[in-house]
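Schema walk-through. Below, the input block comes first and the output block second. Nothing else is stored per chain. Lengths vary across the set, and this one has 268 residues.
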Amino acid sequence: METGWIKQLPGKVPVRQVPMGVFWGKVDLNSPPKGVAHTTEGLSEVPNYGGSSPHFTIGQKFVSQHRPLGDMAGTLRNTSGGVETNRLVRLQFELVGFSSLQPWLPDSNFQRDALSGLFELAEKELDIPRKHVWPDALEPGHIWAALDNPRRPKKFPDVPGWYFHSEIPENDHWDMGSCLISKLMEGADEPQMVPAFAMVEVQRAETGGLIADEISPFFASKAALRDWAVRPREGKEDTLRKRVWNAMVENRVQVAERKVKETEIRQE
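--- output ---
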């Protein structure tokens, strides 16, 4: 297994060294090889993780490495006396951006290329299979930001491959939503995916991290999103618009950019 700092990902994607975080120890190489993917639920190129940084942040412009390969990341919650989490994961990254319950991909070519390179590195150097252990798309009818969501207790830590934060025991975040990482692992984009914009409400969770919730439909342009937000409406949708305006007044709104299926784009 490769250890230490790297200068670039496969595909010649450069990597900056931005050391950050407390040293928690080495990863357990006796556990089946696994990686965990997160989204930052914000737009900072390099968030301040405190002592709990991942190995990498994949930003809009840069890939930053915070910990040497072989060291534990601190990105997952690990309850005392519970299931071991961080120690059993060989690679963790945070993707700058927002999750979505709808199938999505990063809108940025740079981020998609960086993710593809990271999955290749993980497979060749860390023996992490290039597969998502669960279907990418979330099944309807569940609250995913919950300790008891149905994916958490069933496969980790025994099944090798890639997990989302939402699929790890003892954790209550829902990232990466329905991100289609299997498409990136296969080296293929989804041809029906188109650029989209949505408003998200960003709040701080009780556990300290950020959580985001989409509070608008997807639109093909920022102008269309803006027009939807300010246009007077009647009926049920007024409740949603009230939530949007309350969040804007309290400075809890950001605009998420991503790719989604064309059928998800609002046409008005």
